[in-house]
Structure formats: C-alpha cells, structure tokens
C-alpha cells in the first residue's frame, strides 16, 4: 500500500511538472547534440586528413610510375619514327625483287645499332606488303608472327605509334610454344584497298623494365600489402610477372571489377584522370587509387587495406567518446539548476491566473492538463470574452457614425442649426459649427492589390491603423472625425482654429507625417485630398463632392500625394488642349519611321503636356493616343510584308485601370519599344541570312584565285558596301579578311595531313603570289610556312 501510494505521488508530480521536465530534457538534448556534432566534426576532419594524406602518397607513387611509362613511350615513339624514316628500311619495306646483300645488311644494322644499344628493345620487324612477310632481327630473317597478324587484322585497325600489348612466341616448339608479353609500336602511313598496311616498321619492347618497377613498388613496404596493377587500353591485365598470372588472381580480378563498376570510363578519359574509391574484397575494405595514362590508354591501380590506413583512428574515437561522456555528465547538473530558474515565471503565472482553486499550494488539482495547456485555455477564454465585448460595443457605433456622417456630407445644405447640432451630438465628437471646417478624403493606393494580397483580417487591421493614426496626427492641431467609408476611401471632417490662414498647409503636413509612418510600419500607402476651409456648415456637402472629385488627380500627382485645390490650380490651365493634339499627331507620324529613340522622346513630350490638363481632358487625350497608335499599326501592316503584332498591353482593358499617369505612360513606352524591337529583330535575321550565305560561298570556293568581295557582291546582287557592313557585324571581319583566313586554315590542314610542297598547297588554296602567301601566313601564325612544316616534323 505504501509503495503504491509512493508511485502515485511520483506520477502526480510528473504530470503536474511536465513543462519543467520538457525544459530539462530539451536543454540536455541540445547539449548532447552539440557535443556529438562537435565530436563528429573533429573525427570527420581527422579522418579526411588521414585519407587525403594516404591518397596523396598513393598518387605520388602512381604519378612516378606514369612518368616512367610516358617517358619510355615518348622515347620509343621517336625511335620508331626515326627508324621508319631510314631510306634503307624503306627500300626493304617496299622491295619487289629478290633480296640482295645490301637489303640483308639493313636487318643486321638494325640489330647492331638499335636492338644492341637499347636493352628494352626485344626485336624489330620490317613489314613488306608486296611479299606479305616480316623481316626480323629476332629468330629467322623471314619471320612469321601469327599473334601480331591477329592484332593487325582486328577491328578497329591499329593506330600508328600506339603501344599494343600482345603475346609473342619467344621459344618452345610448334606443339608447345612459349610466349612473352611485349609492347609493339607500329609505324605506317598508307594502306591498300583491303585496308592492309603498304609497309611498316614494328618495334617490340620487352617488359622487364615495367616488371622491375612494379616489383620495387609492391615490395617497398611489406607491412601495407600494397599491390599495383596495370590495365591496358582493352581493360585487360598486363601480365608483368612471368611467375604468376595476374588474370587468374581472384583478388586482382575483384579490384578490376570494382574499378569498372565504380568509375565511369567517360569521366576517366574526359576530366578526372586520377582518383580513388573504397571496395569490399573478401569481407575486407580496401582503398583503391587509380590514374589514367593518356599517351598509352592504360590505367594504373593500387590497392591498400583500409584497416592499415586507419589504424590510429580507433584510439582517437575512444578518446572523443570518453571526453563527450564526461562533459555531458557535468552538463546534467548545470541543466537541473538552470531549468528550475526558467520554470519559476511559468509557475508564478499559473498561480496568478488560477480560478476556482485550480492551483492550490503550488499543485494542480487532479484531472487538469499540464501547465501550458492550462495557460492556453485561460488565454483562449479571455480572448473570446474580449472579442465579444468589442464586437458588441463597436459594431453599432461604427454603423451609426457612417450613417450620420454620410447624412452630413450629402445633405448639409438642407440642415438647419438644430439638426446639425443633433448630428454632432449623435456623432459624440467635439466639432463646432462656429469654427471653420475642412473636409479630407483618403484613398488607399493600389487598392486592387490591397484586396488580392491581404486577408480579410489583415485588411481590417490596416484600415483601422490608417483611420486611427491619421486621426491622431490631425488631432495635434485640430478636432477631427474620421470614418471608414468601407470602400477604398476614408472621410475626415475637422475644425480648424479661428484666424489660421495656413490651415490647409498645416493639415497637409500632418497628413504627410501619417503617410510616412503608415508606409514605414504597415507597408501600405494612401493619398489624401484636402478641401479649402469652409466657413458655413451648410457647405460641407459641396466641399465633400469637390474634394472627392479632386482625389482623382492622384492619377497626375501619383501615390502618397497630398492634393489641394491650390496644387491643382498651379498645375492646370497653362496648356491648351489643341496644342496637345498637335503633339499627339507628331508622335503618331514618328511611329512608322522606325526611329525608336525619337518616337519615345515624342511620346514623353506628349505626356509631359497632358499632365497640365484637367482630369477629364487627360483621360480623353490618353484614350485618343492609344486609339491612334493602334490605328497606325493597322495601317503599317497593310503595306508591310511581315506584319507587326499589336502589343497585348494596347488591347487590354487593364491599361485604363492604372492609378497614375506615370504607370500609363510606362506601359505605352513598353508597347512602342516592342513595336520597334520586333522590326529591328526581323532586319537582323535577314542580315544573318546574308552573312551565312557569304560564309558558305567562301568556304566552298576558297580554292578559286578570283574569289573576292566584288565577285561575291555580283553573285548575290547586293551592293558591296552593304555586304561589307553585314560581314563586319556578323563575321567579325571584312570579306577579304575572311577569305584569307579560310585559305590559311586550309593550307595548314594540307601541311599537317599530306606531303605536298608549299607551291602545291598554294595552288590548292588559290594563292598565286608566293611572297604574298608568306606574308599572310607569318602575320597569322608568327612563322613562315617552311618554319611551320619543319616544326611539325620535329
């Protein structure tokens, strides 16, 4: 019984102090997450640095190996090329008759001068296509190499001077031959109709140097079990160890499969020739580094065990966990004290807001929710009661204020003194018929946007702010009564002091202050219109109608404006409407001429004068401008081969719904720009067609020595000056410059891909004067044609 009572008591304390427990748990969770994040960050950074160090070490080894292979590849290429260029070798390569002593001596020279001096050269073949045989420095003079024949007959055909990994018979008998892996470099120039080389030189290279490199690297550190492999350009292992077949090694095969699965060959060949990845092999994780050899098409792979690379990280992880646990235990003790301090205001608030004995002696009655649920319920009920009170209090008052104010501004001229005094009493304001009156009309700017972008609650709040803040601003100098008219406007009736000659200006300043404050804090603006002072209350209705009409001049003066009768009088009357009609005609006449800048300037001049008209004339002239512009476009399309589309803005009803003349003017300017830009774009497209045709003619007839700007002009039946202008814009140079450029580039192609002489190349590109050709070539490439050809041969 005692144990059950103790358990219930503990559970009750937990229920009553849920928020305290939440504070304690949240703080501890944040501390724990921070510690884990910080510890993880340290571990990840250390792991990354160790990983990067090992990767850089592997890349140094692979890069050195790559350098050795590339260096030997370059040396063998040069040796193959120079051997191929020997006249004695070519005589044997293209021999049709019986061999003589001189021809046989060529093989002996190759054996003595090349094979003997370069220990990595296994043998040299001279292939004669006429006799379909190899002359060899290895074995018999007339050599047969079936493995090489298979390689040369494969599809796709071999590339000259590209290392070929292949098997070569080096001993044994016909029944039981022995093979070695060699690299063969083949050099030839032409092939016959069957695609067979007409003659070639083949250098067979031993792999002893490569085997020695790999053995040295694999045995450099016996602790790491690091293994290095080479994949040839067919993604097959290169057999570098005569005592052990790599292809039959299950570990090596798994490394290769992981590489082909993980690394995209397009990525290796294109932009990422080196990198690393991790792989699981026989239940053990390995780090595999790779590097691609562009010259030979090979790929070097190195594998290291993951556990050896990260041997020291486990100790670091244990240390981090120990420190994290110690810090967290200390944080628990500090959190308990901090949680109680944070919780005290909550408990005190519960005690202050308790009702019906819900909270007694610091504890909640059984059945009640946790602390914040309790406070939320108290707030909800209080808010509902307050809302009902304000709703009941304000609804009828607001309706009656609007009713009596509307009666005042619509029927004041028929009211006698007694009726007017009754209205003031019903409005419950301190207005006096003995003081001058001023009527103000406020209008919310961009009202359509106001309705569409604000919720009903937001709109009511903003309307309330406008009315109250503006009333407060005006009340500093006069008595004001503001009523929301429930559309986009508010009406203010106010008394000014006797003898205030500048009362309108004072009211305007107060309205400007209210506008600025509301714009800054509520991000909504309004314009205000102020009447002249009224001495008799009977004139309030007339003043309201006049002020409401004047509020339309927001169209001229813009949003956030304070409009007075004096401002309107100063702005209007200085321009005659007939003068404006004349300017409209000049603008319409300028549209078909195609000068966009002048047309826009004339439209701006029109609207500069329109602003000085009265409101009715402004709207009339504005609509007439739009009508005349559309009519002009229709007339232009009657005579134009490619009609101009009427801008959508000109056809939209929303054009006439803009709140300011500035917005209206801007839309018309955009329409005018689109009209002219469409015409200019069509002209540019036509010129591009001309430029493309000129380029095609030159590219197709560069070999014609009579090709010139004049001949192209005559061919296209266009003036030479126009062709020259189009060429400079679209080709970036004149027609003669482009002709010379094409001829020079074609000449370089012949130099790099043929054995033609310079004179023959000149004839093929249509240049007759040798000195002129040399001058053009040197100006373009910084060297003479002979120097360019000599450099290419080297």
TrEMBL record:
PROSITE patterns: HTH_ARAC_FAMILY_2
Residue intervals passing through the bilayer: 20-44, 320-343
Keyword match Phosphoprotein: no
The entry's keywords: DNA-binding, Membrane, Transcription, Transcription regulation, Transmembrane, Transmembrane helix
Residues annotated as domain HTH araC/xylS-type: 692-791
Highest taxon in the source lineage: Bacteria
PANTHER family in alphabetical order: ARAC-FAMILY TRANSCRIPTIONAL REGULATOR (PTHR43280), HTH-TYPE TRANSCRIPTIONAL REGULATOR EXSA (PTHR43280:SF2)
Protein name per UniProt: Helix-turn-helix domain-containing protein
Organism: Paenibacillus planticolens
């Amino acid at each position: 019984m005692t144990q059950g009572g103790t358990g219930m008591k503990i559970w009750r304390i937990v229920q009553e102090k849920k928020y305290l427990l939440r504070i304690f748990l949240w703080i501890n969770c944040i501390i724990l997450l921070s510690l884990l994040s910080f510890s993880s960050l340290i571990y990840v950074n250390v792991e990354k640095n160790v990983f990067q160090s090992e990767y850089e070490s592997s890349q140094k080894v692979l890069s050195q190996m790559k350098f050795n292979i590339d260096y030997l590849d370059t040396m063998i290429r040069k040796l193959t090329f120079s051997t191929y260029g020997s006249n004695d070798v070519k005589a044997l390569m293209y021999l049709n008759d019986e061999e003589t002593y001189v021809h046989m001596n060529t093989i002996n020279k190759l054996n003595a001068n090349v094979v003997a001096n370069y220990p990595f050269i296994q043998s040299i073949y001279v292939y004669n296509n006429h006799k379909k045989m190899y002359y060899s420095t290895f074995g018999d003079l007339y050599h047969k190499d079936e493995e090489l024949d298979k390689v040369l007959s494969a599809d796709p055909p071999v590339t000259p001077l590209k290392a070929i990994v292949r098997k070569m018979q080096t001993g044994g008998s016909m029944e039981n031959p022995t093979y070695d892996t060699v690299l063969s470099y083949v050099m030839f120039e032409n092939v016959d109709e069957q695609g067979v080389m007409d003659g070639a030189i083949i250098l067979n290279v031993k792999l002893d140097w490569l085997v020695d490199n790999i053995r040295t690297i694999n045995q450099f550190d016996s602790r790491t079990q690091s293994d290095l492999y080479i994949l040839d350009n067919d993604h097959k292992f290169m057999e570098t160890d005569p005592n052990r077949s790599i292809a039959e090694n299950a570990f090596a095969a798994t490394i290769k499969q992981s590489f082909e699965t993980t690394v995209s060959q397009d990525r290796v060949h294109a932009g990422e020739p080196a990198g690393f990845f991790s792989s699981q092999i026989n239940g053990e994780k390995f780090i595999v580094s790779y590097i691609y050899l562009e010259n030979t098409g090979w790929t070097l792979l190195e594998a290291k065990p993951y556990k050896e690379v990260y041997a020291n990280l486990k100790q670091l992880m244990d240390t981090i966990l120990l420190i994290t646990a110690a810090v967290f235990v200390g944080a628990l003790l500090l959190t308990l004290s901090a949680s109680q301090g944070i919780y005290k205001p909550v408990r005190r608030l519960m005690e202050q807001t308790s009702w019906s004995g819900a909270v007694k002696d610091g504890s909640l009655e059984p059945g009640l929710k946790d602390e914040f649920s309790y406070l939320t319920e108290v707030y909800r009920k209080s808010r509902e009661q307050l809302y009902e009170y304000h709703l009941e209090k304000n609804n009828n008052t607001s309706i009656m204020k609007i009713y009596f104010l509307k009666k005042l501004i619509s029927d004041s001229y028929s009211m006698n003194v007694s009726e007017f005094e009754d209205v003031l009493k019903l409005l419950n304001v301190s207005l006096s018929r003995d003081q001058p009156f001023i009527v103000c009309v406020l209008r919310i700017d961009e009202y359509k946007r106001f309705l569409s972008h604000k919720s009903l609650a937001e709109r009511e709040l903003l309307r309330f702010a406008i009315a109250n803040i503006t009333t407060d601003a005006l009340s500093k100098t006069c008595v004001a009564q503001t009523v929301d008219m429930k559309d986009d406007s508010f009406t203010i009736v106010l008394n000014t002091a006797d003898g205030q000659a500048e009362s309108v200006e004072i009211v305007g300043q107060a309205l400007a202050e209210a506008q600025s404050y509301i714009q800054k804090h509520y991000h909504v603006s309004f314009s205000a219109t102020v009447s002249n002072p009224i001495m008799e209350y009977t004139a309030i209705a007339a003043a309201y109608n006049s002020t409401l009409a004047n509020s339309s001049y927001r169209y001229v003066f813009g949003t956030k404006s304070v409009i007075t009768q004096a401002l309107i009088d100063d702005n209007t009357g200085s321009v005659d409407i007939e003068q404006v009609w004349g300017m409209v005609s000049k603008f319409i006449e300028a549209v078909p001429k195609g000068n966009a800048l002048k047309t826009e300037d004339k439209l701006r001049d029109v609207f500069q004068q329109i602003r000085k008209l009265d409101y009715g004339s402004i709207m009339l002239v504005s609509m007439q401008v739009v009508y005349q512009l559309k009519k002009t476009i229709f007339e232009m399309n009657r005579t134009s081969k490619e009609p101009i589309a009427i801008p959508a803005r000109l056809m939209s009803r929303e054009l006439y719904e803009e709140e300011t003349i500035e917005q209206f003017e801007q839309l018309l300017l955009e329409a005018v720009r689109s009209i002219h830009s469409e015409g200019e774009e069509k002209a540019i497209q036509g010129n591009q067609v001309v430029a493309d045709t000129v380029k095609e003619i030159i590219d197709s007839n560069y070999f014609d020595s009579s090709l010139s700007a004049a001949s192209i002009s005559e061919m296209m039946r266009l003036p030479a000056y126009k062709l020259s202008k189009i060429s400079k814009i679209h080709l970036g140079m004149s027609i003669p410059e482009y002709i010379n450029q094409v001829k020079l580039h074609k000449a370089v192609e012949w130099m790099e891909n043929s054995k033609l002489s310079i004179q023959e190349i000149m004839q093929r590109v249509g240049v007759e004067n040798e000195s002129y050709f040399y001058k053009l070539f040197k100006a373009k490439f910084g060297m003479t044609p002979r120097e360019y050809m000599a450099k290419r041969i080297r």
